[in-house]
Specification:
Chain lengths: ~450, ~450
C-alpha cells in the first residue's frame, strides 16, 4: 500500500473514532455501509475496507459476517495520565529504578544505570532486524529450545573462554535478562529464611530482588580490590550464608575491580563455608583490561557466572544468560519452563547478529574511549563542587562519589528530582545506611552542564 | 558489503578457525600479519581485516593494538551433542513441555500446545520487523516503561472491552510471557504453604509452576461448562485456598467453555470465601464466539486476567500481560523490576505492529476455519481407532480424548516417543491421576497420517 493511501486509511479510522467518542456512533450501533461511508468521506471503498478491518483488529468495532460492522459494546475508560515519576515516593531500593524507567525526555538522568541511546550500536541493530525479517518461519513463530539459541551459547562459551572461564555451550542457559538470571538462580538455590551476603555498597536492585525471595541479607564492606576479606570471614562464621551475590569485572556502584589475591581468598573461604557465589558480569564489555573473575579461578564449581547485553548492545532486546556447573543445568531449565515457559528466538537471534557483526567490536572500542574521556571530565566537574570520587575506576561508566560533609544524599536526590534531575543516592546501595553521603554518577549521562549548575545551586 | 565478499570473509574466518582447531595456530600465538595472510589466502587485505575483526568479536582471537592479533588463550570445550528428548525421563508435569521444546524436526508433535509455523502470520511479522528496523534509537536501545508500551496497553484495554472486561490501560502490565504473568501474580499473592485450586484436568504447566511456589495444590473436577460447582464449594470449605487458576475462553486441555451460570456461581463462592481467581485467556483469538470471562462478570475485583500472543501471533516474540485491579499495579510493577528489571520495547512493538495490521484479523478468520476443519478430520480419525473425544469443542486446537479401555496414557506416550511421536498423556494434566486413560491431541499438529498409523499399531 502506498504511503498516501495509508494516510487516508488512518484519517478514515480517526474520523470513525471521533464519531464513536462523541457518541454520534453509540456503542452497539451499526456503522454505515462501506459504499455509503466511502462516498461520505470522499475516499475509495478499499480505503474504508482497510479502515474497518484495522478498527476491528484493535477491537474498536466488531465485524458480524453477513450483517456489517458494529461499534464495540463498551469503550475502555481512557487513561487519565501515564504514570510519571512520583516526587513523594520514599527513597528505597526501587526508587532509582522507577525514577529512571518512568522519567520522560525532560529529565536528566546522571543516576541511571545505562547509556544514552546515541551511545549504542543502533546501525548494527537495524541491520540485524532487517536480516531477521528474512529468517525462516520457525525462527519467526516458534518457541526456542529450552537452553536457548545454540549458536549464541557457543559464542558465549568462546567469549567466556577469553576471561579464562572454561565452559561448554551446554552449561549456558539464555534468560530474559541479567536480573532474571539472578532471580532464577535464587529460586534454584535459596529457601525463605536463608541468609545471603551482598557488598556494601552494592547494586540497589539486589536488595529489591532478595526481598522478593524473603531471605535475610547481610553486607560486607567493599574495598577498591573487592570485599573486605576479614569482614567476609566473620560474616560467614556469624551468619552461615548460602550465597554471595556480587559484580565481577566492574563493580556497581563503585567501579572497583577485584584483585587476584582477594578473589583467591574469598574463594577459599567460600569452599570452607560451603558458600555459592553469583558473579554478575554485565559490564564486561566496558573493561579496558580483564579483571579476575571468580568463575575463572573456581572452574564453575561453586561460582555461577551471569551476564546480559543491556549495557552495551541494547536494553530493548531482553536477553541474559547463566553459566553454571553441568549438573545444575537440568534443574534450572525445568524451573525456567515452569515459570516462563520457552525462550524466544527473536532476542537471541538479534543479540547474536549484532555480536557477530564486525562493527560491534569497533563500536565498543570507540565507546570505551568516549567513556574514559567523559569519566575524566565528569570527575573534574564534580571535584570542583566538592564532590569527591572514591576511586578512579579502570573502566565502565560509574563514579562513586562522596558529597561535601553534612549533605544527605537521599535529601539531595529528592530536591534534584524536583528540578528534573534523577540522582542515585548512596542510601539505596547500602543496607547498613553507611553510604548516606555518597552518590553514584553515570558519566555517560552526565554531559549536560545543567546537572552541575543545579548541583552547585542545591549544595550552595 | 557484497554477498561475494561476505562469502570470502567467511571462508577466511573458517580457514583460521580450522588452523586453531588443528593447533597449527596454538592458543596465545600471534596470527600472520594482514598483508601476509591476504597473500596466503589469495584474498584482499580488506577481507582479512574484516575476518580478523569478526573473529575478535566472537572471542576466537584477541586484538592487541600496536602488536597484532593473537589466538585467544583458551578454547571453549566443544559441546558433544545438543540436548535431545530423553526417552527415559519420568512422565511428570514437565515431560510434555521438555519433549515438545527439545524435539528436532523429525518428530511429530500431536501432544504439543502450539501451532505449526506455517499456520502463523509470518508475513505480518516480517513486515513488523522491517518497520522496527526504522524505529527511533530509543526504541532500539532503551528499556521500556515499567508498565510496558503504552499504545499496546491501550490496544489491549480496547480488546478486553470486547470481552466485556472494563479496564483502563493503566491496569495492564506487559510481561515476558503468559506463564511469567501467572508466575508474577503467584509471587504477589501467595506464601509458601498456601493452598491453590486448579481444574482436574488442567494445563500441566500450572502444576510445575505451583510446585516452584511451594504451595499445596488441590483440584476440582472440570465439566464441559466449567468446574463442578458443588465440588468447588466443598474444596473452599475444606482447604481455604487463596487462589484458583484456570483458563477462560477455551479450556486447556479439554477445549470446554465456561457457562454463564457456572461463572456466576463460582464468583459468588469466591466472594464468600475470599478467593482470588487468575483466568488465563491465551486462546482467546481462537474462539468463534466469546464465552463468558470471570473478569467481565466480576469487574476485576477478585479476578485477574492474563494473556499472551504465543498461540496465534508468535511464540518467538515473548510477550504476555496482566489485567488487574488498580491498587495492585504498583506492587506488581515493583516485583517485576526487582525480578526482571525493565520491559523491552522490541517484543511489545512487534506484537502491536502485527495486531494493528489489517491482515491479522483476516489471518485469524482463515486460521479458525482451517482449525475447525482439522478438528473434524482429527476427531474422525481418532474415533476410528477407538479414541473418543470427551466433547466437541467450540473452538481452539485441543481434543481431549479417552483411550480404549485398559490403555495407560503415560505408557502409550513413552512408546510413541520411541517412534518419534510426542503425545500429551492425561496423567500430566491431573494431580489426582484421574486422567490416566486420556490423551490431549492438538488438531493443528495432527495432520500427518503417520500419527494414526503408529497409534493403530501401538493400540493393536
Amino acid at each position: 500500500m502506498l504511503a498516501e493511501e495509508t494516510t487516508l486509511v488512518e484519517q478514515t479510522m480517526e474520523a470513525i473514532r471521533q464519531r464513536i467518542a462523541g457518541r454520534t456512533l453509540a456503542p452497539g450501533s451499526r456503522l454505515p455501509s462501506i459504499r455509503r461511508f466511502a462516498e461520505d468521506m470522499q475516499v475509495s471503498k478499499s480505503t474504508v475496507v482497510e479502515a474497518y478491518d484495522r478498527l476491528s483488529a484493535e477491537g474498536t468495532i466488531i465485524s458480524r459476517p453477513g450483517s456489517g460492522f458494529y461499534v464495540a459494546g463498551q469503550l475502555a475508560p481512557l487513561s487519565l495520565a501515564e504514570i510519571g515519576p512520583k516526587l513523594d515516593r520514599e527513597v528505597d531500593p526501587l526508587w532509582v529504578s522507577r525514577q529512571s524507567l518512568e522519567a520522560g525526555g525532560d529529565f536528566l538522568k546522571p543516576g541511571c544505570g545505562w547509556m544514552p541511546p546515541s551511545w549504542m550500536p543502533e546501525v548494527a541493530i537495524r541491520k540485524a532486524l532487517r536480516s531477521l525479517s528474512r529468517a525462516n518461519d520457525a525462527i519467526l513463530t516458534e518457541y526456542g529450545s529450552p537452553l536457548g539459541l545454540s549458536e549464541l551459547r557457543h559464542f558465549l562459551a568462546r567469549r567466556a573462554g577469553g576471561y579464562g572461564i572454561d565452559a561448554s555451550p551446554d552449561q549456558i542457559i539464555l534468560t530474559g535478562s541479567g536480573t532474571q538470571a539472578i532471580d532464577q538462580l535464587c529460586r534454584f538455590l535459596l529457601e525463605p529464611g536463608h541468609c545471603v551476603i551482598v557488598d556494601d555498597p552494592c547494586y540497589f536492585n539486589f536488595h529489591a530482588l532478595l526481598r522478593a525471595h524473603r531471605v535475610n541479607v547481610i553486607s560486607v564492606p567493599f574495598t577498591p580490590n573487592g570485599p573486605d576479606v576479614a569482614a567476609f570471614e566473620q560474616a560467614l562464621i556469624a551468619h552461615k550464608p548460602k550465597l554471595y551475590i556480587t559484580n565481577s569485572g566492574l563493580h556497581n556502584p563503585t567501579g572497583a575491580t577485584l584483585s587476584p589475591v582477594v578473589a583467591h581468598r574469598v574463594l577459599k573461604l567460600a569452599e570452607q563455608h560451603n558458600l555459592t557465589i553469583i558473579e554478575d558480569d554485565i559490564f564486561a564489555d566496558l573493561e579496558h583490561e580483564h579483571a579476575p573473575r571468580y568463575a575463572a579461578f573456581d572452574g564453575l564449581e561453586r561460582v555461577v557466572h551471569i551476564g546480559s547485553f543491556s549495557k552495551t548492545l541494547s536494553a530493548s532486546v531482553r536477553c541474559g544468560y547463566i553459566i553454571a556447573r553441568p549438573d545444575w543445568i537440568d534443574g534450572l531449565v525445568d524451573l525456567r519452563i515452569a515459570t516462563s515457559f520457552g525462550a524466544g528466538h527473536f532476542s537471541a537471534e538479534l543479540v547474536l547478529s549484532v555480536l557477530k557483526d564486525g562493527s560491534y567490536r569497533k563500536h565498543l572500542d570507540a565507546l570505551k574511549t568516549k567513556l574514559a574521556d567523559t569519566m575524566g571530565t565528569t570527575a573534574a566537574r564534580l571535584t570542583k563542587l566538592g564532590i569527591k570520587p572514591w576511586i578512579e575506576p579502570r573502566g565502565g561508566m560509574f563514579l562513586w562519589c562522596e558529597l561535601p560533609k553534612g549533605v544527605n544524599a537521599a535529601d539531595l536526590a529528592q530536591r534534584a528530582l524536583a528540578r528534573d534531575i534523577i540522582l542515585a543516592p548512596g542510601s539505596v546501595f547500602s543496607i547498613t545506611q553507611s553510604a548516606d553521603n555518597y552518590v553514584r554518577f553515570n558519566a555517560a549521562q552526565s554531559q549536560n552542564p545543567k546537572i552541575f549548575e543545579v548541583l552547585e545551586d542545591l549544595l550552595g
